[in-house]
Every structure is written in structure tokens, then in C-alpha cells.
Design a protein that fits this description.
Elements lengths: L1 H6 L10 H5 L6 H35 L1
């Protein structure tokens, strides 16, 4: 039992570099906007396809 507990622990994890944490990343608003619009379009298309799928299931149940 003790072997299982000790085998799940990670040993010697690398420490984060403090130099990379002090640099702030510049946010590209245009790219962020484009990514958001693209994601919303993907979600909208998925939901429309799902609604169409539900209609086919209902039709199948009626015709069955």
C-alpha cells in the first residue's frame, strides 16, 4: 500500500523561471476579437446542427 502512495508522487519538479514571469505579454485585441467571433460561429453552427439532428430523430420516431 505504501509503495502505491509513494509511486504516485512526482520527484524533483522543475521550478518556474522568475525571469519569464516578470515579462508581461502584450494582448492583441484584434486577434482576440477574431478568435472570439470564430468560436461563437462554431458554437452557433454546432447548435444548429444539433437542432436539425433532433428534428430527424423526431421524424424517425414518428415514421417508425
Amino acid at each position: 500500500m505504501n509503495n502505491i502512495i509513494f509511486s504516485n508522487q512526482h520527484s524533483a519538479l522543475p521550478l518556474p523561471n522568475n525571469n519569464s514571469n516578470t515579462k508581461k505579454k502584450k494582448i492583441d485585441i484584434k486577434q482576440l476579437k477574431n478568435n472570439t467571433i470564430s468560436s461563437l460561429n462554431d458554437v452557433e453552427n454546432f447548435l444548429n446542427d444539433f437542432q436539425r439532428f433532433k428534428k430527424y430523430i423526431k421524424l424517425y420516431k414518428i415514421l417508425k
